[in-house]
């Protein structure tokens, strides 16, 4: 009971703010599209679906792909060969480095807040590895603002429609870390290289930056 209550509380940590951020992003991105984002640069070698919502001042490099349901906020940078797919929302000022993959063509949604940095070949918002996941179920990931998610990290969506993987604000998630389905990660944490979180792990908000290096499940 206590664990369930803590999980619900952690899940509510970001929901109101991210809902507002999502609405703001939709309003901003609706002003532009893959065809009329006049102040954005889309490299000729990028593949951007005409229905994708692209904000102002966005840079999309060569060999990137942006799916039909993606929403890219103002001043985002997609470096060479990065991919945004499925129902994925990227807030203003995010930087997505080479080879990173955001989202998946699955029911559900990935919401990433503002000023986040996604490292090379990170995989964020993909299907979980939990065998309880049922194909066709909605699954969710919400990430706050000002996080740095370094190279080769993997962050998975929830395993059930009634849950959500949540990451707060101002976290440094170093290279090759893993955050599994339904985790609730607070704010102001530092996860050292190769830190692994199994499903449903809760890390509270830290008033001071906390360095964690271990395996949890």
- The sequence of SSEs as H and E is HHEEEEEEEEEEEEEEEEEEEEEEEEEE
- What is the helical fraction, as a range of percent? 10-25%
Query: How do the strands of the widest beta sheet line up side by side?
Result: 1-4-7-10-13-16-19-22-25
Radius of gyration: 16 Å
Mean pLDDT level? 87
Query: Could you give the distance between the termini?
Result: 18 Å
Cα shape: globular
The tally of beta strands, per DSSP, is 26
Structural class: mainly beta
Describe this structure in words.
A nine-stranded parallel sheet has the order 1-4-7-10-13-16-19-22-25, with no helix packed on it. It is mostly beta strands and 217 residues long. It has one domain (2-216): UDP N-Acetylglucosamine Acyltransferase, domain 1 (3 Solenoid). The chain contains two helices and 26 strands.
